[in-house]
Amino acid sequence: MIQDLIAGGKESSAVNVEWAFSELLKHPQIFEKATKELDKVIGKERWVEEKDIPNLPFINAIMKETMRVHPSSPMLAPHFTREDSVIDGYDIPAGTRVLINTWTIGRDPTIWDTPEEFRPERFIGREIDVKGQDFELLPFGSGRRMCPGYTLGLKVIQLTLANLLHGFKWKLPDKMTPEELNMEEIFGLAIMRKIPLEAIGEPRLPAHVYGV
Ligand code: HEM
Prior knowledge:
Elements: H1 2-26, H2 28-42, H3 57-69, E1 79-80, E2 85-87, E3 90-92, E4 97-98, H4 102-106, H5 150-167, E5 168-171, E6 185-186, E7 192-193, E8 200-203
Antiparallel strand pairs: 1-4, 2-3, 5-8, 6-7
Helix pairs in contact: 1-3, 1-5
This protein binds protoporphyrin IX containing FE (HEM).
């Protein structure tokens, strides 16, 4: 059971932060907007804490947009129908293995306006959430087999991303431009970056905040 929790929580959380960070390096104007929100809400004298998360709507929108475009479990976990059902006119017999393709749902142009664009603003002022009630965005699944660690997972990734952005100035290595940053994916149980992300960080807060 403990192994399930570690296996279920580690890669999914890390992959989400890596994708969010990649998208921000790819879109410097969104990066800047996120940094401005952090400077306004947190200031420059401390790190971001869990209690700050509800006051960071743009960081929250970045996480949702990341989960839409790069769901860490593109097919969720395999499910299994326990009784005969009819969905959208299709007969699904009991005992069928069901895979939910959240990757395709996240890029469906009948649901999302310009789905290929990374635009966190699409979530600002909208009720849509990642908690299994809005079927167009199901990064944690839904129903009884939904991810049991989603509250922890969400807090960990929001806090990690927020502190990486708040605490450091970032640039791509070897004078790489945002356009040159490779965003290819590898499909698997989790969608990883084909080429691991490399970025160079420099402190942006006063030295005492780092305990120096
Ligand atoms: C951002 C982080 C995370 C994401 C995106 C994520 C995503 C998911 C998804 C999509 C599923 C399958 C749900 C389904 O098929 O309906 C799942 C299952 C699961 N997750 Fe997570 N998860 C995350 C974090 C965590 C954490 C932190 C833990 C534990 C501490 C955890 C433990 C599990 C376990 C044990 C299952 C299997 C549940 C079952 O089969 O009944 N996950 N997760």
